[in-house]
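Customer ticket, subject: "Can you confirm the structure for Aldehyde dehydrogenase family protein?"

Message body: Hello, I'm evaluating your service for our small team and ran a test protein. I'd like someone to confirm that this is what the system normally returns, since I don't have a reference to compare against.
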Amino acid sequence: MHIGGEWVAAASGQTVEVITPTDRNQVIASTPRAGAEDADRAVRAAREAFPAWAALPATERQRALLRVADDLEANIDHLATLTALDTGNAIRTQARPEATNLVACFRYFAGVSTEVKGTVLPAGEGQLHYTRRQPLGVVAGILPWNSPLMIAGFKVPGALAAGNTMVLKAAEDAPLTILELARICAEHLPPGVLNVVTGYGAEIGDALVQHPGVDKVSFTGSTAVGLQVAAKAGARLAHSSLELGGKSPCIVDADSCTDEVIEQVLLASRFARQSQSCTTGSRLFLHEQIHDEFLDKLVARTKQLVVGDPREEASDIGCIINAKQWDRVQGYIDDGLAQDGVEVAYDGRPALQVGPPGFYHAPMILTQVSNDWRIAREEIFGPVLSVIPWTEVDDAVAMANDSHYGLAAFVFSQNLDRALGMAHRIDSGWVQVNQGGGQVVGQSYGGMKNSGIGRELSLEGMLEGFTQIKQVNVKLG
Ligand code: NAD
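Agent reply: Thanks for trying us out. I re-ran your input and got the following:
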């Protein structure tokens, strides 16, 4: 782990083995199994570094973050390869874009760091009333395993640009790229500004959430854990923001049975990330008029996707993270197949060319799904797409909103009034119209309902999430 500018082991001396998703028998690293003592050490290091870092002119922090960005960019191939090995995300379709995205995030937040500004009230002669936007202090960032570099990009540069220092907890299943991020940041940032710890959530994660020296917890992970994190942080009135799970609707109108829309829906399905993405458009609402034709075309394109070694450029789809997750996906498939009326539009499993010892899984498309079945309600985090036909816009919107989640949504219609009408009525933090790709650096990103609280990735996310306002009223003269 990297704490206070030094590489350290866990105080207990214990470690956690990291297994690559490409081979269940291959231990590729062992990382420190940090606990409460390590949390304390990391928080102390961050606290010690805080006053000097916060006191720097914004332009100085900006220069440091831009140097980090340049160095990350010089290491993109290395970071992408490591991501593929660590997470199972395919290098061309996912791992390299994630590393590229991280660089873009560092540049974006470096750029907007001078926008952390206050306001002046028209308080009359003899009075100067102004606000300062101040950093919160020490931010604990807690990361999931699915896209560690990308999500680190949502948190680290924004928190640091605003003058906070950080303790970043890597996910136990995919910690390696985050340790590389620590190595690169250490070349350009003062010791203690970014500290990276590893280990289990119930140990080091919980210790950070409960540590009195942590001013804010920025958590990305499951809703179940997020609820605990918010409750524990709230119990001591620490700030928290939560980026949680999703069950995102993807609505396709009767006028949108085109090859271009098929490609975008394929992106939204996040098959290329084994659908291990919180923004997966996992419920595909197809207008009844185009249901059969659209599905035929979608299946034909899905068949062309290559499931293979995530380190190979030819692979479109890599591996599921671990055995537990792989089994979980099977459980959902079995449950879906057992429902009355379900139809299998595509099951890629029999034709799969790769398998154990890697956790490979082909896409599966089920149709005539009911919105109240488990496969349509719960986050599967595997390449299983549920297709639900619709005829009336009101029904499509009602089904889209009939979910505990509200993270992302996708709407496809050539009629912009209809598309925007749906977009505005869907209860999701992010709606895309006529496209299915990923987040764009600078956009507001975050969930409604059980998908979370708070926004990241944007200037307003940085201001609201990583600063606090102080009002200063001065009597002049
Ligand atoms: P998870 O909730 O199991 O773990 C996330 C992180 O929290 C890990 O680092 C884990 O060690 C830590 N953790 C676990 N228990 C903890 C505790 N009691 N206290 C503090 N920390 C604890 O999630 P996961 O399985 O790693 O990731 C998958 C989930 O993340 C999915 O639900 C997915 O939708 C969600 N996710 C959300 C977003 C988003 O931006 N909304 C992005 C990616 C993933």
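A couple of notes from the result: The pocket of nicotinamide-adenine-dinucleotide is lined by residues 142-146, 151, 169, 171-172, 200-202, 205-206, 209, 220-222, 225, 228-229, 243-246, 278, 379, 381, 407, 447, 452 (CB under 6 Å). The mean pLDDT is 98. Feel free to reply with more questions.
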